[in-house]
Amino acid sequence: MSGFLFDVCFLTIIHLLENYLFGDIILGNKTLAILKPDCVRKNLIGEVIALITKNGFKIKAMKMVHLTKDSASGFYEIHTGKPFFEGLLDFMTSGPCVPIALEKENAVADFRKLIGATDPEQAEEGTIRRLFAESKQFNICHGSDSDENAEKEIAHFFSRNELLNNFGL
Ligand code: IDP
Ligand code: MG
User: Fold this and answer.
1) How does pLDDT run across 82-132, given as a tens digit for each residue?
2) The CATH number of the domain where 69 resides is what?
3) I need a labelling partner for 89 at 20 to 30 A (CA). Which of 41, 75, 109, 157 fits?
4) CA distances in angstroms from 115 to 8, 13, 23, 126, listed in the order given
5) Domain that holds residue 77
6) What are 135-153's pLDDT values in tens digits?
7) Ligand 1 lined by 136 (C-beta under 6 Å)
8) Is residue 52 part of a domain?
9) pTM to 2 decimals?
10) Distance (Å) from CA 144 to ligand 2 centroid
11) Domain contains 6
């Protein structure tokens, strides 16, 4: 085998192995939830987590953090410049929140369904936002909106080591 071909094969194998180890191959079964500062303040962490686990999601990593403005604006970068952006940063940095990496088949769509629409008045009965949220801003819980964003958002809060250990890959 020529040196070039060997290098290509070697790099391909390394790439596949890395994707496998770091979970990219099983895209579609992970999402990031954040129990927002209003959820923590209202002492609703337990009730919301109970709903999440009753609905078949497995908790793979979880922590309580008080976001800095830098971290919150990085997380919500996509909303930069929108009228609600500064209010969102003030809210998300107003107290501790609880990011949770969740696993379930079809995790992103199923979790968005479980939390309900952004505005609790539009959210379906029985959804987390309908049950607990007080407004479009103070809406209790975040959920990733795509597999690609789920990967990025999980990486925002959890190190590769934490994920490797907890996802058991
Ligand atoms: P999502 O959380 O349902 O995905 P996004 O549109 O991504 O909704 O908005 C991110 C967060 O910004 C919302 O969860 C909410 O806290 C806040 N937000 C969104 N739209 C508004 C608004 O019109 N007024 C106040 N806050 C808003
Ligand atoms: Mg969103």
Assistant:
1) 999 999 999 999 999 999 999 999 999 999 999 999 999 999 999 999 999
2) 3.30.70.141
3) 109
4) 45, 39, 25, 9
5) 29-167
6) 999 999 999 999 999 999 9
7) yes
8) yes
9) 0.87
10) 6
11) no
